[in-house]
Specification:
By secondary structure, the chain is mostly helical. 73% of the residues lie in helices and 0% in strands.
């Protein structure tokens, strides 16, 4: 092994040590933003504790997106336009799939919607993987049209939080932990 090469274990130790110093603030802010998002959307009559579990899937998608947006700010999936377009596409087509599943076999429609949303995310250069969960949630849990408004509110909150974190210089610190 050359002098400047690390074993896998040494690399993990070094990366963890560098990460710990630069990631705590973004982690705390990410957690706060998700709790704030849940609180606000719960106040606009979208009960996250409803029995169907629909909102749980939506919020897990938002939590996954927050991780990507705030802790991996320079990844391809963390671009603001990809995030926004992907969630809007997934919400609209997820609701369309829910509506059409009244007339077409549910499983066939689910496959079609997942295929169409995935294709559209690729074709519009909007690859943001957690958004697929939104399309699935709309179909499986029969989320009504006001779910689109919930998505828009969630999108706005996460984009605003990202903007504030960028202006405060917090996101640049989160990306410094990458060991090159």
């Amino acid at each position: 092994m050359k002098k400047n090469e690390f074993s896998h274990r040494e690399y993990k130790k070094l990366k963890h040590k560098v990460n710990r110093n630069n990631i705590l603030i973004p982690l705390l802010i990410t957690s706060f933003v998700i709790v704030l998002l849940i609180f606000i959307l719960n106040r606009v009559n979208f009960d996250i504790r409803e029995i169907s579990g629909a909102s749980a899937l939506i919020f897990t998608s938002f939590a996954s997106s927050a991780f990507i947006l705030f802790l991996m700010p320079y990844s391809k999936a963390a671009k603001r336009t990809r995030f926004v377009k992907s969630y809007i596409i997934a919400g609209v087509f997820g609701y369309t799939g829910f509506f059409l599943s009244r007339f077409v076999n549910f499983y066939i429609m689910a496959g079609i919607i997942i295929f169409v949303v995935s294709l559209l995310l690729f074709e519009t250069d909007s690859e943001h993987p957690p958004a697929i969960g939104i399309a699935v949630a709309f179909m499986i849990f029969k989320i009504p049209i006001y779910g689109i408004l919930t998505l828009i509110a969630g999108i706005f909150i996460l984009v605003a939080a990202r903007y504030i974190m960028q202006k405060a210089g917090i996101l640049s610190k989160a990306s410094e932990f990458r060991v090159r």
